[in-house]
Amino acid sequence: MQRDIIIVGGGVIGLMSAYFLYKSGRKVTIIDEGTIENSTSFGNAGLLSAFDKSPLSHPGIVFETLKLILKGESPVQFHPRLDLNLYKWLVNFILNSNEKRQKKTMILFEKYGELALDLYKQMMLDDALDFDLHEDGLLMIYTEQKSFDEKIVDCQDKKRFEILNPEQTKKYMPCANEKIKGSVLLKRNAHLDPKKVMLSTKKYLQEVGVEFILNEKIIDIKFENNRVKEVNSLTSSYEADTFILSTGYQTLLSDKIKTNLMMTPAKGYSITFKMPDELKPKMSSLFADMFIAMTPRCDDVRITSKLELGSTNPEVVKKQIDSIKKNFKEYTIPFEMKEEVQWTGFRPLTPNDIPLIGRDEKYKNLIYATGLGWLGITFAPAIGYIMNDL
Predict the structure, then answer these.
(1) Cβ pair 378, 116 in contact under 8 A
(2) Dihedrals φ, ψ of 46, to 5°?
(3) Is the pLDDT of residue 44 over 90?
(4) What whole-number distance in Å separates Cα of residue 117 and Cα of residue 370?
(5) For residues 369 and 356, what is the distance between their CA atoms, to the nearest angstrom?
(6) pLDDT at 137
(7) Continuous H helices in 128-227
(8) What is the pTM of this model?
(9) Which of helix, strand or coil describes residue 267?
(10) CA–CA separation, 189 vs 117, rounded Å?
(11) Which residues are within 8 A (CB) of 337 and not within 5 positions of it... i.e. 6 or more apart?
């Protein structure tokens, strides 16, 4: 059976690609190795943080990380292993951590962040999708006086920023303690609930007739006359006119055609819990000096952190969860985290925060949509929109 478009991978990028392709009249099939209700996108903090926030590869990141390692507060852990691509990625990351690259990246973030936010709102309006979207900004909380002073120098535009002292910060983050130095509210950012985004988009696509082939792992890819002819699982073959690979950190299929995607699996963690209402944050927040995000949701709160490079362990590591809690509790007043749900997953991280989007150079009916790192939720509708253009 010849299909129109097959999307391999049903994370948030795959779902958004299917949404916009369907809207333009295309026949879409999504193939995923799971049920789509256990993908990496579900563990996201839910930040839509495209505006006025530095990318991961920014000037000074190496020194900042070393300083946090010495303090025992580093979110980064490196697992050395025999993988040349990992070390190439690290070298590229260091080379990209400069001011020129940061400016280029932030220009891209601005353009596609604005497009994504507009598209999220349009989807909610057109199709009554429930994303629990809040356009109330992102609060950058600082625990180091030096980094806070450096940040506020560039945040004098009152239309985009609000500089808050410790007491003002506690009104937005009631659980913060006296150790925080202040905060900057990035007014243009927003947050939503990744679970609602995934489930409501999947439900809508199923209702309008998008084909889902679930619990089917694609392990091979076949070619004919410089075109992809089919993709294969252990038991079935699937032919289509066009193939989109939105497989996240997994590069099995691109490796088979010897396309070396410059990205690495970055393992991150989240802890979702309930806490006293009077202590809940009023908006999405980021403890900037520790790389810990905290997001209020309808019924609970989620914190996310950690960046493990070189790890191949898919399990939640208690040591990492304990480290997140230790660092978080250092700057918050005591409270009990109730009904904890701990999660870990791998995100496809490029060395310059730029996603890998576009057609394969040789196989013109093969399109890549990956490399979003932690920004999958932030840019997903914009990437889907681009897929439709391609």
Answers:
(1) yes
(2) 85, 10
(3) no
(4) 19
(5) 6
(6) 97
(7) 145-153, 166-172, 194-208
(8) 0.94
(9) strand
(10) 9
(11) 271, 273, 274, 275, 325
